[in-house]
Design a protein that fits this description.
This protein has helices spanning about 5-20, 65-80, 100-120, 170-180, 190-200, 205-215, 230-240, 255-265, 270-275, 290-300; strands spanning about 25-30, 35-40, 45-55, 85-95, 120-130, 135-145, 160-165, 220-225, 245, 280-285, 305-310, 315-320, 325-330. With about 350 residues, it is an alpha+beta fold. A 7-stranded mixed sheet has the order 8-10-7-11-9-12-13. The longest helix is centred in the first third of the chain and has 18 residues, at about 65-80.
C-alpha cells in the first residue's frame, strides 16, 4: 500500500497504536494540538512542532521570506494557543539550498524574529542543513497551569460551539496565488486583497485570546483550525464522542470571501469549511459561561468571537444546517500524503 492510499490521519493513527506506552510523566501524547508533560509547581509543559516545505506550503515566487518565517512560527503558536498555554522557547531547523541568496535567508529570520518578539518567544537554537528545497521546521515549548489546560476531548451535550476571528480568507488568497488572472482591476474593494494576503501569510495566533478565555467552568474542548473548519469539527466530535451541529449562516467569513467565491465559481463556505490555514481557535463552552468567556476575550483583545453551533444531546458525527435543513458535514479539509 502506498502512503497516498492511507493518508496522513490514518497513518498517524496507525503509528499511535504501535507506539510504546507513554511513561507516567506524559499527560497527553499523540492526538492533540500539543503534547502535555508533567511540570512543577502546578504547571504542565507543552511541546509542539510544525514543518513548512517549499512547493507544499509556499513557493519562492509568491511568498516573501519574511512571510515564510513569520507564518512558520505562527502555526506553532496556534497549537499552544489551542491548549490555553503560554509559548516560551523555540528551536529552528532549516534546510536551504547552497545557491539560495543570503539576503533571502536573512529575510526569513527577520520574519521569525518579528513573530517571536510579538509573542515573547525565545529562539534558543536549532540546526541548519543543505537541502534541494527550503524546509523550515520549528519545535516550540510552552507551559500552562494544570487547571487551565485545554484538550480536544471534553465537549458535553448542550455546550455551544464557538470560533475566534474570521474564516476562509487564507484559502481564498491561495486561489488568487494559483490563478491570479481571475481577478481584474476593481474586482475587489480597495484593501481587501491585501487583507486576504495577511490572512494567508501572517495569521495571528490566538494566544492572548485563549489565555483570557480559560476561566473556570467555561471552555470544555478546543482545537486550532489549520486544516479547515470541517476537519477540526470532526476532530472535536470524535475526541469527545459527541455529535455537533453548526449553522452555515453563522460562520464568520473573511471580508472579500464571498466575492472571491463568485470569481472562482465556488461556494464561499468551501473556503471556510475545507480551505484551512486560518489558525483561528474552534472551541466548545458551557452555555452558562459563554458570555463570560466572550467578555474576557474582548476585554483582552479586539478579536470577535462567534457562536456557530451546539453539541448535540444524542448521536455522533457533525451536521451543518443550511436554512431549515440539516445534513451530515463531510470531513474534508487539507490532508498531507493524499
Amino acid at each position: 500500500m502506498e502512503l497516498r492510499e492511507m493518508g496522513e490521519l490514518l497513518f498517524i493513527e496507525k503509528l499511535k497504536r504501535e507506539a510504546p506506552e507513554n511513561p507516567p510523566q506524559v499527560v497527553k501524547g499523540i492526538g492533540d494540538d500539543a503534547a502535555v508533560l508533567k511540570g512543577e509547581g502546578g504547571m504542565l509543559l507543552l511541546a509542539t512542532t510544525d514543518m513548512m516545505v517549499e512547493g507544499v506550503h509556499f513557493t519562492l515566487d509568491t511568498a516573501l521570506p519574511e512571510e515564510v518565517g513569520y507564518k512558520a512560527l505562527a502555526a506553532n503558536l496556534s497549537d499552544i494557543a489551542a491548549m490555553g498555554g503560554i509559548p516560551q522557547s523555540a528551536l529552528i531547523s532549516l534546510g536551504l539550498s547552497p545557491q539560495q541568496e543570503v539576503e533571502w535567508a536573512q529575510g526569513l529570520y527577520r520574519g521569525l524574529f518579528h513573530c517571536a518578539g510579538e509573542f515573547q518567544v525565545s529562539l534558543v537554537g536549532g540546526d541548519t542543513v543543505s537541502s534541494p528545497l527550503t524546509i523550515l521546521n520549528i519545535a516550540l515549548l510552552g507551559e500552562v497551569e494544570e487547571d487551565r489546560c485545554l484538550y480536544r476531548e471534553g465537549a458535553n451535550p448542550g455546550d455551544l460551539i464557538l470560533v475566534t476571528g474570521e474564516l476562509g480568507g487564507s484559502a481564498a488568497y491561495l486561489d488568487y496565488l494559483l490563478h491570479p488572472s481571475a481577478l481584474s482591476e476593481g474586482s475587489l474593494p480597495p484593501g481587501v486583497l491585501e487583507h486576504l494576503r495577511r490572512r494567508h501569510f501572517r495569521p495571528i495566533p490566538r494566544v492572548r485570546e485563549m489565555r483570557a478565555a480559560t476561566i473556570p467552568g467555561g471552555i470544555t474542548s478546543a482545537i486550532d483550525i489549520s486544516d479547515g473548519l470541517a476537519s477540526e469539527l470532526h476532530h472535536l466530535a470524535r475526541s469527545s464522542g459527541k455529535g455537533m451541529l453548526v449553522e452555515a449562516e453563522r460562520l464568520p467569513l473573511s471580508p472579500g470571501v464571498k466575492r472571491m467565491a463568485t470569481l472562482y465559481k465556488k461556494d464561499p463556505l468551501e473556503y471556510a469549511l475545507y480551505g484551512g490555514e486560518d489558525y483561528e481557535i474552534l472551541f466548545t463552552c458551557h452555555p452558562q459561561r459563554v458570555s463570560s468567556v466572550i467578555g474576557a476575550i474582548q476585554k483582552a483583545t479586539s478579536t470577535p468571537v462567534t457562536v456557530i453551533g451546539q453539541v448535540l444531546s444524542s448521536g455522533r458525527g457533525v451536521f451543518i444546517k443550511r436554512g431549515e435543513a440539516a445534513e451530515p458535514l463531510k470531513p474534508g479539509g487539507y490532508e498531507h500524503l493524499r
